[in-house]
Amino acid sequence: MPRSWFRRTLALVALLCLLAGPAQAQFGHDSANSRTSPEIKQAFRPVVASPSRSTVRVRADGKDVALGTVVSADGWVVTKFDQIKDGGKLTCKLKDGRELLEVKLVGVHDKHDLALLKVDVKGLTPVQWRDSKAAVVGNWVATPGLSDDPLAIGVVSVATRTMNRGDYPPSPLAPNGGFLGVGLEPGDGGPRVNSVMKDGAADKAGIKVDDVVLLVAGVRVEDPDAMINLLRGYKVDDTVRLKIRRGEAELWLEAKLEKRPASLAMNRALFQNSMGREINRRNAGFPVALQHDTILKASDCGGPLVDLDGKAVGVNIASAGRVDSYAIPSEVVKAVLPDLMSGKLPPPKPEPKSSEKSDEGKK
């Protein structure tokens, strides 16, 4: 049967089901949630049959934290770094039910939030790639899991593009998280502080205008977006260690994050954007992305996003809003794989333990 015929038929079936909102409501599926209905997902089984064998479930200490995309038969798996960076023993579960216990974090590409894992197994099924430019606006996409049905389906809402700061939806998590109280701009070697809120966490820690931030909690930050996204993972009263450059000197400072001032609190629009959906802690700041409207859990990022031929047009990297999800385009993932595999992009070193702080501060 010609592939083009199958694709047209599948698209027509899915469209008819989605338009049948009132009828589906009688069976407990309203038009807004019809993509989650078993009937729709079953229609997409042929789409995810192959890529589901290239998908793994990544766990940390037995808890599901992400999906992973198999990129090589000899045990290389790409996933979302922010979902696994908190530590814990990593394992990977395969579609056939095996759970791989020997999992090593080999590399991290911070800007794209990609992590490369190495599992001790041969004969995996690597994902088949397709250039993301083929995924035009309105095209169907699916997210395979380990079952026969897709985890979720959606359509491309914005084609692959270079992201500008204005493209990012404001993070609904940031206003509820810890607040540092600095203004940032690109600097030489890291984000430069261009303003410090009086009596805020940064001010109390001794951070000054023109300081250049090099490390946050042991992680190198190359630009303001990287620093902002990293800080999103911290809460009020968390203490964060920062390595800064002030003139010719490098200093270690500690900032105890505070509650965001009421004047900067989450507005109603942001609240509505996050209602009913689990949003990733790091959900913006990617240099380039493909945007789609698939409703994903935060723990379902890191796996492949596939077209109707089952080819991966990207790796899901963030559930960013009520109807916004992002994927790192396939061509970008493939381009960074050699550096990740070669060791050129090692994982960040763990933050020094408290017993080491005083010694570092004297350097």
Structure commentary:
The protein is α+β, with helices and mostly antiparallel strands and 363 residues long. Among the domains are: 3-43, no CATH class; 174-264, PDZ domain (Pdz3 Domain, Roll), CATH 2.30.42.10. It is 20% helix and 31% strand. The chain has nine helices and 19 strands. The strands form four sheets. It has a seven-stranded antiparallel beta sheet, with helices on one face. Strands 8-9-16-19-18-17 form a six-stranded antiparallel beta sheet. Strands 13-12-14-15 form a four-stranded antiparallel beta sheet. The radius of gyration is 22 Å and the shape is globular. The N and C termini lie far apart (69 Å). The model is unreliable at 18-33, 165-175, 265-276 and 353-358 (pLDDT under 50).
What can be said about this structure in brief?
The chain is 20% helix and 31% strand. It contains nine helices and 19 strands. Mean pLDDT is 83; it is low at 18-33, 165-175, 265-276 and 353-358.
Produce the secondary structure layout.
Blueprint: H1 3-19, H2 21-25, H3 38-43, H4 45-48, E1 55-60, E2 63-72, E3 76-80, E4 90-93, E5 99-100, E6 103-109, E7 114-119, E8 140-144, E9 150-162, E10 182-185, E11 192-196, H5 201-205, E12 212-216, E13 219-220, H6 224-231, E14 239-246, E15 249-256, H7 268-274, E16 288-292, E17 304-306, E18 312-321, E19 324-329, H8 330-342, H9 354-361
Antiparallel strand pairs: 1-2, 1-4, 2-3, 3-7, 4-5, 6-7, 8-9, 9-16, 10-11, 12-13, 12-14, 14-15, 16-19, 17-18, 18-19
